[in-house]
Every structure is written in structure tokens, then in C-alpha cells.
Amino acid sequence: MKNILETKELIKSFGGVHAVDHLSVNIQEGQITGLVGPNGSGKTTLINLLSGFSLHDGGSVFFGGAERKKITPWENQIYNITRTFQQIKLFDQMSVLDNILVIITERNPFLALFERHSKYHISQAEDILKQVDLFEKRFHNAGELSYGQKKLLEIGRVLAMDTKIILFDEPFAGLFPEIIKKIENIIKALKQEGKTIVLVEHNMNIIRNLCDHLIVMDAGKLLAEGHPEKVLTERVVLEAYLGE
Question: Which residues form the ABC transporter domain (predicted)?
Fold first, then answer.
């Protein structure tokens, strides 16, 4: 296994508080790496830094050994990385199908409305919707979907990006068990395809079920890392994360 994503002494501060505090971690290619920690430990801030939605104040980030000195969201496709958000970001007034087509064709939602989509693009989008069990909803506006269906559509948009690295920021939050199982199966399939997954999650059963490696953060620092079963039994983790 080789490191596909690395941080070295990474720093991000808000009002003098280090949300990410000299953090050095390695993400191995082809694995599912869990990212856990108490609320406010810096997990989402780290995801924002890795995807360019926040700029780091110090330290370095490396993708495949190459340093990205300034990370911007519009360059993520070049570096083969995409992400989901805690707050779902869809085009609510566009159809479910068009929400996928805008990813695999024209990357502008307004131009996409006027683009003539080939049979190939439509077939590709429909295949993705079948994977996330939304094919029957393809002509509905995204805003009409239930919360769980919107989560599935957001993941469908991630599938359409077809990147090597995917950052999932709490994709299971607030979902019923049936939808959780569907997303677990999708993430397992992505791993089988050789994708590298970083998963922010609070549910330890999901972490144990999916993750090959676990990183625990606390107050912006690396608290522990290793195989999930081992890390989750460490006293320092139990004290910081589980409150024992």
C-alpha cells in the first residue's frame, strides 16, 4: 500500500483556536480510512482543508507525493478527489436525472439545461441512479425527494465524478437503517473498484464494519490511529471520545 494523501504539520486556526493543530496523517491508497473524534475535534475542518473549502494556515498537504500549496475546490477533479457535505448540496429545481447529467457533461448547471445530452450520457446517468436506487425518481425534481433520497442522490453525484479519492463527511447522519445499508454497500463497492475513501462518522458499528484504518482526532490533534478494533479499545480514545 502507498500513501495517496498526506498531511504534515497541518494547521488551521479560527480566532486563535487551532481547529487543526500540527496534524500529520497518511491515507493509504485503496483503503477506507475512518475519521472520528468528539464534536469540535477538527474532523470536518480537515475535510474542508483537503478539499479546498478552507485554506490552511501552515503545514503541507500532499496528493500522490505532490504538494498542493494552495488547494482550491475547482482543482479537485485534476487531483482526482471529491467529497460530500454534512448539509446536502443539490440543484433542487432540477430533475434527479439532470443532477447527475450536470456532473458527467457540462459542469455549469445553467448551461447543462440547454446541453443536448447524448444517449451515452443519459444511459450513464441512469445506470448511476440504478446504483443508488433512484431510477424511478429520475424525472422528479430533486427538491421533492425525502432526506434519505437526497443523501443517495448526493452520493450518485459522487459516483458520477469518478475520482480516485472520496471524502465522505457524515453520509449516514439522520438516516433510517434501510438507507444506511444501501450507502454501506455503495462504499464497499467503491473500495472494490480501488477507490480511496475517507469517512467521517460517529457510529462505531459502521466504522468497524467498513474501515480498514482509523484516525482519531481530539482538539485538532492526532490522538490515535491504527486498526479500528485496536484503536477503539485504547484508554485514551475511550476517555476522549466515548467519555469513559
Answer: 5-244
Q: How far apart are CA 141 and CA 223, in angstroms?
A: 43
Residue 227 exposed, middle or buried by CB count within 10 Å (0-12, 13-18, 19+): exposed
- Report, in this order, helix, strand and coil percent for the chain, each rounded to 5: 40, 25, 35
* DSSP annotation of 73: G
The length of the chain, given as a count of residues:
244
CA distances (Å), 241 to each of 7, 181, 219, in order? 22, 25, 11
Question: Going residue by residue through the chain (244 aa), what tens digit of pLDDT does each one get?
Answer: 688 999 999 999 998 888 999 999 999 999 999 999 988 899 999 999 999 999 999 999 999 888 988 888 888 888 899 999 888 889 999 999 999 998 887 555 555 455 555 788 899 999 999 999 999 999 999 999 999 999 999 999 999 999 999 999 999 999 999 999 999 999 999 999 999 999 999 999 999 999 999 999 999 999 999 999 999 999 888 887 655 4
Distances (CA, A) of 188 to 129, 136, 199, 230: 17, 23, 12, 21
Which DSSP letter does residue 163 get?
-
Q: What strand order describes the sheet that includes 58-63?
A: 17-28, 3-14, 58-63, 66-67
CA distance 116 to 212: 42
The kind and range of the H/E element at 165 are strand 165-169
Residues 6+ apart with CB under 8 A from 96: 129, 134, 137, 138, 139, 140, 141, 142, 145, 153
